[in-house]
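[agent] plan:
  1. take the single chain provided in the ticket
  2. run structure prediction with default settings
  3. attach structure tokens to the ticket
  4. add a short note for the reviewer (M.T.)
[agent] executing step 1
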Amino acid sequence: MKILVLGGSGFIGSQVCVKAVSEGHEVHALGRNKPNKVPEGVNWVSKDALDYEGMKSFLQKESFDAVVNCIGILFDYSTPLRRLNKLFSGSNSVALNNNETYSNIIEGISLNIYHILKDTDCKMVFMSAAETKWREKKTTRLFERIFIPKFLKEYLKRKRFVDDTVSEHENVSIFYPSIVYRWNQFWKLPVVLGFRLGSFITPILYNPIHVDKLSHNIVQTLYR
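[agent] step 2 finished; step 3 output follows
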């Protein structure tokens, strides 16, 4: 297959690229800034995914068999915590201006891709978050309402809007990871352990997933 990975320099996106290449696919990775090292076999595309017309022209010209959107941001420009993205983003990206909001990065890019491709045969994969499922139970809805800060409520709101919009399309797959990790991220390991144990005790926490397993699952869903 000819596969495009948006956010191909990020933590999840880069591993999706490596996995897809290892299975013999033609892989293109898209991002604003080319990383210092592009995985072997990956074709890099420097492009701003926020540019709707540019993305529309590019996607229509290239005719990809599958598009995997791994672009995301945990702390957007509205919060002073935005520099913490360096701890969560494989590309070390930080929201630098007021265009880099949850509305644009999470909702805008995903829905632009969806609307460009929804009438084609292209398979689409979107990354949501396990915590969006808090709305499904009374106890977790209450937890979110009381304890989750305003900016993260906005994050979940945008994720849910995308999920609700794209979920019924037959060519769309949505993944719902919580904490994604790899073993050499030592600072994450206490969080991973806490979430793993907590997932057996409370519906508020979800079991973490290793980035290799997640990337494997993403590529496998493209065969369906």
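[agent] step 4 note for reviewer: The first helix runs from residue 11 to 22.
[agent] ticket updated
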